[in-house]
Write a structure and sequence with these properties.
Helix content: 25-40%
CATH topology: Aminopeptidase
Organism: Chryseobacterium aquaeductus
Order of helices and strands: HHEEEH
Radius of gyration: 13 Å
Strand order of the largest sheet: 1-2-3
Protein name: N-acetyltransferase domain-containing protein
Distance between the termini: 25 Å
Shape: globular
Largest sheet: 3 strands, antiparallel
Number of domains: 1
Length: 82
């Protein structure tokens, strides 16, 4: 995710594999795949004991960009946030 953001010239917080793994295992992430290929990812951040929620780290593989996957991932993460 970090490398992809750097290539596009956008900012993204660099997160450890352990951090992202924890988000996934806690059910606070959306991982998009097509067959067995990685398409995209987004996770949820919470703070103040869950009082505030934001989505973060939305990224789509270059191969799948402009195919509507970012919108699908956002829709899922918003539903998960609720």
């Amino acid at each position: 995710m970090y490398d992809s953001a750097q290539r596009r010239g956008t900012g993204i917080a660099k997160r450890s594999i352990e951090y992202l793994s924890k988000k996934i295992s806690e059910g606070n992430a959306v991982v998009a795949t097509e067959n067995v290929e990685w398409v995209g990812f987004c996770y949820i951040e919470t703070w103040s004991h869950g009082q505030f929620v934001a989505n973060s780290g939305l990224i789509v593989s270059p191969k799948f960009r402009h195919g509507g996957f970012a919108t699908l991932i956002k829709d899922r993460v918003f539903a998960l946030s609720r």
